[in-house]
């Protein structure tokens, strides 16, 4: 991890060098001889913390502090006053203007280091908590509040985002009665940034789908357009995504899909589990990439399972990742379970190195029942992470 | 840990990916490549001989590099691709974009 950057503002040269010397053992230190110089340095790059003298020529510490309070990007930078003025008056003045700490000269350098460390730690903690909250919010918005349903089918969905997980997304829409479009994808990257990109990406997806579904129902044509937008639009420049786009027509027992480099769907029956192999290039690499539609007939009593890479990248006790072959094996066993997704995830965890998943987990299970009237709507199961109550639409 | 960069000529370098390219070191990889691009390097040979892990963040950083050098007529090629990396490359169909060579030497010969 890159070290914190600290700006030391002090007109007394010897003290400035001493502070620079001691602090630079742990931090990236920059120096300024007065408030004006400090503002220039801050304008170049924001420091994580400022240590400043009060009495300085040109612009003193109070004026510097006041100037920082005016801009919202500098307001919150932890600020320590360092001064010979031991009187209560300037201490109070400092505290009133939003100074975080106040150390009087002569001071113990170890004490200063401890305070610096504590302030940085606190600022970092706030940031981490904030990231976690925003991340959680994004994660919820990237997931559906309900699932598509049709007579003769049952669907299951599981999503468990992790704080430091990536940009998994899932969405569906009913284009016309009985015709559903389902998207499952993974925007590359980790953490809050990936979730943010995934969120913007999903917004693009939805608007493209909304506009284009009037003229085409071909997943491949839709995918081609999504890829073009991703390549042409500067804000999306650094966004790469794998995406599976499926058109589900339950009355025909048919799924037509196009796959842009996403984990391959698996078609499970009691006899065997097959990989739905055809796929094309990941999104965001080639503006002229071609995509192809492929149609799958869903036989009675079969399930199409789609997921994101967190599942197959889970480290197993065997020393290897679960992988596609490993997942196929577990799915075959999960097939007849009342809650197949829940059962399957538990089974994977039982054989993992760690008792929890290391990345985001997203699974969508679409099952055609043996007969149309058999169990019209199956039990639903959502992760406790999502407080979803309205799952029927 | 930093990435080892071996210059081939003014426009071409070999980067040894090492054991893993994932969310932990992807930004480091990005900045190492950026330095090279700034120096005028256009062609990157990525050596995957020892690579056990390539996750989507790692792959994303390679994609960024590709998007950066392809308008400059540059290339990103994969050499000595290990089995775990091959799985990812197959899944994402990126073999359509990144040429693959059995060895670093073969890649070097093809590019120079």
Structural topology:
The complex is a heterodimer of chains A (393) and B (112).
Chain A: E1 5-9, H1 13-23, E2 28-32, H2 35-44, E3 49-53, H3 61-70, H4 72-75, E4 79-83, H5 88-96, E5 101-104, H6 109-141, E6 153-160, E7 167-176, E8 179-187, H7 191-212, H8 219-232, E9 241-249, E10 254-260, E11 266-269, E12 273-275, E13 294-297, E14 302-307, H9 309-312, H10 323-334, H11 340-350, E15 361-368
Parallel strand pairs in A: 1-2, 1-3, 3-4, 4-5
Antiparallel strand pairs in A: 6-15, 7-8, 8-9, 9-10, 10-13, 11-12, 11-14, 14-15
Helix pairs in contact in A: 2-3, 6-7, 7-8, 10-11
Chain B: E1 4-9, E2 12-16, E3 20-21, H1 26-38, E4 43-47, E5 53-54, H2 56-69, E6 75-79, H3 83-91, E7 99-101, H4 104-111
Helix pairs in contact in B: 1-2
Account of the 3D structure:
- The complex is a heterodimer of chains A (393) and B (112).
- Chain A has helices spanning 13-23, 35-44, 61-70, 72-75, 88-96, 109-141, 191-212, 219-232, 309-312, 323-334, 340-350, and strands spanning 5-9, 28-32, 49-53, 79-83, 101-104, 153-160, 167-176, 179-187, 241-249, 254-260, 266-269, 273-275, 294-297, 302-307, 361-368.
- With 393 residues, chain A is of the alpha/beta class.
- Chain A has two domains: 5-134, Response regulator (Rossmann fold, 3-Layer(aba) Sandwich), CATH 3.40.50; 142-368, Phosphatase 2c, domain 1, CATH 3.60.40.
- In chain A, a hairpin with a 2-residue loop joins strand 7 (167-176) and strand 8 (179-187).
- Chain A starts with a strand and ends in a 25-residue tail after the last strand.
- In chain A, 39% of the residues are buried.
- The model of chain A is unreliable at 376-393 (pLDDT under 50).
- Chain B has 112 residues and is α/β, with parallel strands linked by helices.
- Chain B has a single domain, classed as STAS domain (Transcription Regulator spoIIAA, 2-Layer Sandwich), CATH 3.30.750.
- In chain B, strand 1 (4-9) and strand 2 form a beta hairpin.
- In chain B, helix 1 (26-38) runs parallel beside helix 2 (56-69).
- The termini of chain B are far apart.
- The model of chain B has no long low-confidence stretch (mean pLDDT 92).
- Chain A binds chain B through residues 164, 166, 186, 188-191, 194, 237-238, 240, 242, 261-264, 279-282, 284-286, 309, 313, 321, 323, and chain B through 23, 26, 55-57, 59-60, 63-64, 66-67, 84, 87, 91-94, 96-97.
């Amino acid at each position: 991890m890159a070290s914190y950057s600290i700006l030391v503002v002090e007109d007394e040269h010897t003290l400035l060098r001493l502070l620079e010397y001691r602090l630079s053992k742990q931090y990236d230190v920059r120096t300024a001889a007065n408030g004006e110089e400090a503002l220039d340095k801050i304008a170049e790059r924001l420091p994580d913390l400022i240590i400043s003298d009060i009495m300085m020529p040109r612009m003193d510490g109070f004026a510097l502090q006041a100037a920082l309070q005016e801009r919202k990007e500098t307001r919150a930078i932890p600020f320590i006053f360092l001064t010979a003025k031991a009187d209560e008056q300037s201490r109070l003045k400092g505290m009133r203007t939003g100074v975080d700490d106040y150390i009087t000269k002569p001071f113990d350098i170890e004490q200063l280091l401890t305070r610096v460390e504590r302030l940085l730690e606190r600022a970092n903690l706030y940031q981490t908590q904030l990231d976690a909250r925003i991340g959680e919010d994004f994660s919820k918005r990237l997931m559906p509040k309900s699932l598509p349903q049709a007579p003769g089918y049952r669907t299951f969905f599981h999503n468990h985002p992790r704080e430091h997980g990536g940009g998994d997304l899932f969405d569906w829409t009913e284009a016309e009665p009985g015709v559903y479009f389902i998207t499952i994808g993974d925007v590359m990257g980790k953490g809050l940034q990936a979730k943010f990109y995934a969120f913007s990406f999903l917004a693009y997806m939805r608007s493209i789908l909304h506009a284009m579904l009037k003229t085409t129902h071909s997943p491949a044509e839709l995918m081609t357009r999504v890829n073009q937008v991703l390549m042409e639009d500067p804000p999306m420049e650094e966004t790469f995504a794998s995406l599976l786009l499926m058109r589900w027509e339950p009355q025909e027992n048919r799924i037509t899909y196009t796959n842009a480099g996403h984990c391959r769907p698996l078609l499970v029956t009691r006899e065997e589990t097959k990989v739905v192999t055809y796929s094309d290039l990941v999104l965001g690499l080639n503006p002229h990439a071609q995509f192809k539609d492929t149609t799958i007939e869903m036989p009675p009593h079969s399930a199409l399972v789609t997921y994101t890479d967190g599942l197959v990248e889970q480290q197993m006790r065997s020393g290897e990742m679960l992988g596609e072959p490993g997942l196929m094996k577990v799915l075959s066993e999960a097939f007849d379970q009342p809650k197949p997704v829940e059962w399957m995830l538990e089974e994977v965890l039982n054989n993992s190195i760690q008792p929890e998943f290391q990345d985001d987990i997203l699974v969508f299970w679409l099952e055609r029942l043996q007969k149309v009237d058999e169990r019209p709507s199956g039990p639903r199961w959502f992760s406790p992470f999502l407080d979803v109550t309205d799952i029927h639409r | 840990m930093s990435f080892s960069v071996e210059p081939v000529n003014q426009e071409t370098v070999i980067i040894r990916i090492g054991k893993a390219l994932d969310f932990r070191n992807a930004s480091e990889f990005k900045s190492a490549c950026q330095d090279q691009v700034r120096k005028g390097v256009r062609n990157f040979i990525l050596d995957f001989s020892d690579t056990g892990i390539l996750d989507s963040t790692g792959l994303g950083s390679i994609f960024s590099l590709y998007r950066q050098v392809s308008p400059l007529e540059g290339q990103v090629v994969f050499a000595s691709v290990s089995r775990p990396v091959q799985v990812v490359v197959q899944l994402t169909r990126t073999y359509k974009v990144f040429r693959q060579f059995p060895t670093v030497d073969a890649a070097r010969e093809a590019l120079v």
